[in-house]
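Handout, section B. The chain below has 524 residues.
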Amino acid sequence: MTSTSRSKRKGRGEIERLPSGSLRVRIYAGTDPVTGKRHRLEEIVPAGPNAEDDAERALTRLLSQRDEQRNARTRATVNQLLDRYFALTRVEQTTKENYESLARLHIRPLLGDVSLAKINGETLDSFYNVLRKCRARCQGRKYIEHRTDRPHKCDEKCGPHKCKGLADGSLRKIHAVLSGAGKRAVRWGWLGVNPFGQADPLPAARPHPKPPTADQAAKIATQAWKDLDWGMLVWLAMVTGARRGELCALAWDRVTLKPGAGVLEIRSSIAQRGGRTWEKDTKTHQQRRITIDDATVGLLAAYQRRCAQRAGLGEEMPGDARIFSNSPDGSRWLKPDSVSQRYARMCARKPLEWDMNIHQLRHYSATELISAGVDVTTVGGRLGHGGGGSTTLRFYSAWVSEADQRAAGTLSTRLPELPVALDPAGALKSTVQAAEDTQYKRIAADLRGAIVCGALKPGDTLPPFAELASRYGVAFNTAQRAVKVLKSDGLVTVSRGRRAVVASPDTRRAQSDVVSLQTRRRAT
């Protein structure tokens, strides 16, 4: 300590005056578990008349923070945490490589050198905001994006950079990496609390797949069967709903080709990263048996004979031979990415010209099963979902448009007749008034006929409005309207509080003259 500095010890903390006049508050917070060095928490209090009091409060706050174990117990950076996390975390290889790629491209460039002690809610909000705006983190810079980093001649694929943020799915994976690493750091004693938990929770994914319609599926199958090998793969994807990697891993000893007892066993899957492929467990680490119909059993049996004859092996393929392979003996599996690319190209070409992917055939299989009335637990079992069908309900049952249409059709037959209709121009028009017009005119015509034929003689009273309404099944006002027409024609007389009375011929003529006079006056 210099001669211009002095220190004041208080328990386990220290307040030191710096040459500038500011006060440095420092406490011992244990040994850094990463470096093995003594770890201290520090805070600088600016010089001022209340600096001493502010320093005392800062000292108390730091001591409380340490005692409550809310402090970072290490000066390690996010990069150091991620290195240790990936070294010790045991997850599926493809998942781990995907997470490492996200860390390399997006986490380390922005947060890698930041000390864990400085990670807070504001830092995380800023981090995610940058990624949402532009995955290249251009910060408004204008530059040319080239299709490759290697020397090349620019074409239409090279052009001005356009900002494109990371998708919500990628952001959720990044949050999973950081949150998982933070939890490990707490367990290892690096941190008191997980700082990455301060980020706002990202919205849950909303599934919006679009399975092919029945008509589209028929056209896809027709197009695929132009190549028998390719047609068999696409057909099996439709029938079983298996994932592309599971289809690539299928071998002949995993199929039972007996009519009435056809079964397909899903035991493994093919994973791919770049040009490298390997066989692994299924996504949910479950093996499953899928029953197949007799038509598919017959197709697979014929396909096996075709493959065996092509390889010069007689009528059957070896049990370990892959069902779908580019080698005649089935010794090599197909690459999942190649399957996806071929399917997308087939759908994009004429006569289909659709933007589709092969995973939608899985959606199609689930949709058709649920539409047919199969319970979701069985559907989930065929698809290899965990959770006893909860995943199936959450991700598939909402898209059963065919079943929904049938439900709507059933309901429509039980609904009352609509009081609206479309006019010739296609506009919506209420039929309520039209129906009432027809009803009151019918009542007036019936009463008029009774008066003309003598069934109702002059001086006779008409039935009460309530009786007319009940007899014709109309509203009270409709009956009143019918009698009002008879009054305007001079056929009846109406007095307040009394029933309508059939008028005498003289009264009718007088009323007719009055009506004619009023009509002429209105005309002039």
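Note. The chain is about 45% helix and 10% strand. Compare this with the example in section A.
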